[in-house]
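PROTEIN–LIGAND DATA SHEET

This sheet pairs a single protein chain with one bound small molecule, zinc ion, given as SMILES. Inputs appear in the order they were entered. The predicted three-dimensional arrangement of chain and ligand is reported afterwards as a token string under its own label.
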Amino acid sequence: MADCSYHPGKDAVGACVSCGKMVCLACRTELQEKVYCQPCANKLFVAKTEAQPAKVETAPVQTGVSGAWWLLVILPFFFGGWSWIGGLIAWAATKSRDPKKAHSMLIWGIVLSVISVVITIIFIALLTLGYLSIEGMEFE
Ligand SMILES: [Zn+2]
Ligand SMILES: [Zn+2]
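PREDICTION REPORTED AS:
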């Protein structure tokens, strides 16, 4: 086996797919299941981060809204189905900082409310039609 191109005397374990130089265990870098030497991996990493400057700029805005607001939308679903109120509150509180997230919380609040109303209607319908029976309750 050949020696590492960067560390003479060390056995190479593979070759860089980019420049073809031999690499040892210490300087072998795997990116997306391909083997690179360290200089090539660094070059790829720099190229990648420079290619998306717009995303880096918007990142602080995205982190300005806490994920805890989702609890306002999801928790009410299990306690009476007033998710749309929670969604409305979460939307009003977060829309200036993260309109996209605020919008999706409002939509989910409404969707969860509709789901719980539908479940309630189906449940009552099944009860009145006699498909379900709860002890002590008569619907006839
Ligand atoms: Zn290389
Ligand atoms: Zn090496």
